[in-house]
Specification:
Order of helices and strands: HEHHEH
Distance between the termini: 32 Å
Radius of gyration: 12 Å
Number of domains: 1
Strand content: 5-15%
Number of strands: 2
Shape: globular
Structural class: mainly alpha
């Protein structure tokens, strides 16, 4: 399953960070997102502003910061 999610040309994740995520869920997402730039684009659909994602992530500060950097570096945020 990981290989499939890593290589889909355009991965769309709906309801992203609308509820808190456990450390294990974040590790799973990190395993996918680390490979996404090589395979294609990723669209995260969320009702929570990216500035609030940090408080919804359960994990160590450095791990959280690293994942947030991976998710938001070079991202385009479209607010509706």
């Amino acid at each position: 399953m990981l290989d499939r999610l890593r290589t889909i040309p355009c991965l769309v994740i709906d309801d992203w960070m609308n509820t808190p995520m456990s450390h294990n869920e974040l590790m799973f997402i990190r395993e996918i997102m680390d490979y996404r730039p090589r395979s294609g684009g990723t669209i995260l659909v969320s009702h929570t502003h990216p500035d609030r994602w940090r408080e919804l992530m359960d994990g160590s500060t450095s791990y959280r910061d690293s994942l947030l950097h991976t998710l938001t570096d070079g991202a385009t945020v479209i607010e509706l």
